[in-house]
Amino acid sequence: MGSNVVALAIHHVPSGAFGFFLVGTAPAAIVNPGSTPGMLCVGGAFGRLSRQVRSADARGILGIRLDLQELPLGSTLRSAQPGETLYVQGWYRDLIPGTGTPTARFSDARAFTVTN
Question: What's the start-to-end Cα distance of the chain, in Å?
Fold first, then answer.
């Protein structure tokens, strides 16, 4: 592979909010997973990039660098393969408007195909 790193970012996250990304091998459409508002759109063999928990900057951007050599897909770490399509989605902490009750939110999901 030419580059083993992909930059991922979510915009419009509350400044200082913590979050991470999910990566998977198939699309999904799970409404309100674990009573969380929104939709989980990452499926197949998937995992959390929880070793890269970050907080959003003052502009509301939460970003990481995804290493394609260490993907937590299923129960193991593995490398992405040329031609493989991966699906990514952000998850972050937020507050329910008007109540101040903590909750979580999902970003839109994106897909990309790994090239060599």
Answer: 4
pLDDT in tens, 1-27: 447 889 999 999 999 999 999 999 999
Neighbours of 75 (CB within 10 A): 7
| pLDDT single digits (tens) 28-79 | 999 998 888 889 999 999 999 988 999 999 999 999 999 999 999 988 899 9
Element (H, E) at 91: strand 85-95
- CA dist 35 and 17 (Å) reads 19
| Domain ranges, ordered by start, for the chain | 5-40+50-113
Q: How many beta carbons lie within 10 A of that of residue 21, not counting itself? A: 25
State the Cα torsion 10-11-14-19 to the nearest 10°: 10
Classify residue 33 by its DSSP letter: G
Contact between 70 and 28 (Cβ < 8 Å) = no
Q: Give the pLDDT confidence score for residue 78 in this predicted structure.
A: 92
Return the amino acid letter for 28. A
Contact at 8 Å (CB) between 6 and 87? no
